[in-house]
Structure formats: structure tokens, C-alpha cells
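B/F/G family RNA polymerase sigma-70 factor
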Amino acid sequence: MPASTAPEAPPARTAQSTASTGSTGSTGSTRGADTRALTQVLFGQLKDLEPGSSEHGRVRGALIEANLPLVRYAAARFRSRNEPMEDVVQVGTIGLINAIDRFDPERGVQFPTFAMPTVVGEIKRYFRDNVRTVHVPRRLHELWVQVTGATEDLTTAFGRSPTTSEIAERLRITEDEVLACIEAGRSYHATSLEAAQEGDGLPGLLDRLGYEDPALDGVEHRDLVRHLLVQLPEREQRILLLRYYSNLTQSQISAELGVSQMHVSRLLARSFARLRSANRIEA
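Predicted C-alpha cells:
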């Protein structure tokens, strides 16, 4: 990455003094609360300082350092992409800096909630510009769409995920063709980070990053879920409970409920949209 894009580093003493409010044995929730409180104080100081002044730069640098865990969290979701983590973190930090410069504390939104879309947006652009998409033959991709549709139909009819032979019989193709289509579809969608979920207009992987996992310090996913549960259909309530409180993967939820993983993904995406709307997140 070019050296010019690196964020300004705050003085070491600033990081030490701000970290002294908590002990090394603090829980994750306590650290998150401390970070939110510190961030609020720093933004209160920043608004009264002249942009470009040394004091403004010091406080801005402290804000960057205090919120770097958010960037590292987002970057860690891309470990499987085999890109240098240092580069991904640096790109995400650029997004963090942009979010700091645009944030208005008077809006009543927590900074991590406001900043995450910007951090993810920078990482998204980085992968869009630098990651090569796997080429999938057109015929296989078209057949994959049919396999997807047949899977949904048969799941509804049977109340469970269909077998490869059942899909093949439905489409009058061989099981090998079904397997080839599924593999092609995985390759296509695993590298097409901008693609909508399964082509149905729902957010893609990167649009959902940062909102799906409840472990991020400073973003109160569990509180949001608890608040919205009573407003959701019973099945979505159960899926969110399994995802957030039982920490099951989509595949495990699929097995638990006896539906396809694709259906679980769509229901989660629908719930994520409600979470964003309730928290005024611009996806």
C-alpha cells in the first residue's frame, strides 16, 4: 500500500493514558463500554478544536487508535481471501478516518454503528479493484440458477433440503451436472463480493459485514436483536436467537430447522435489513 494512505499515528503516551481506565482483566463488554465513553469524550473535544491544529491532530489520532479494534474486526473477516492483513487493515483505517471526519455526535447514533459501513465500504472497494473474479461458464451459471430454483421449490414441498438425486430428477439432468452447478455457483458467488444475495436484490456478503456477528465490541447487536424480536415473525425470531445467542452458523441453523441454508441466509438478510432500518444505518 502507498505510504501516503497510512493514518496519522497518535502519540504513544495518548494511547497509554486513555487505556489506563481499564485493567487487562476487563471483559469484552467493559472494554467496549470504555471505548464508547472515551470516543464520546474525544468527539466532544474535537468539535471545539481548529481543524489542522496540533491539538486537533492529537485528539483525532486518539480517536483513530481507540477505534482500531473495529477495523481489525472487519479486516479479520477477509482472512480467507489470502490478502495481506496489514493491507486490509490499512484500507479499513482509511474508512475509519473518513468516518471520524464525517461523524456528527448530535445525531444520536453510536460511532461504531455509524463507522462500520464506511470501513466496510473501503474494504469492499479494495477487493473490487484488486481481486480477480473466477470465470464461470455461462451455461453452468444459467443451470445453477435453475438448480437454485429447484432447491427452493423442493425444500418448500418436502419441508427439508432436497437430495442431489431429487434435484437432478426435477430438472431432468444428471447428478454430476447438479454437483458441477453447485460448485460453479459457489465459486462465482464466493468471489463476486458485489453480487446481491442469490440474485434476489438482497445485500451481498460485504453489505452484511459487521452486522451479522454479535461479537464486535461497541456495536450492541444483542440489544438491537432483543428490541426487535417481538416485531419479527416467529421463524425469524428463532433464527436470530440461534444465530446471536446460540452462536450457530447458517449451516447449523439449516440443519436445526430442516430448511436450506439459502433460505436461512435470506431470512437473516431480511432481519439484518430491519436492524439497519431501526438503527438508521445506511447500507
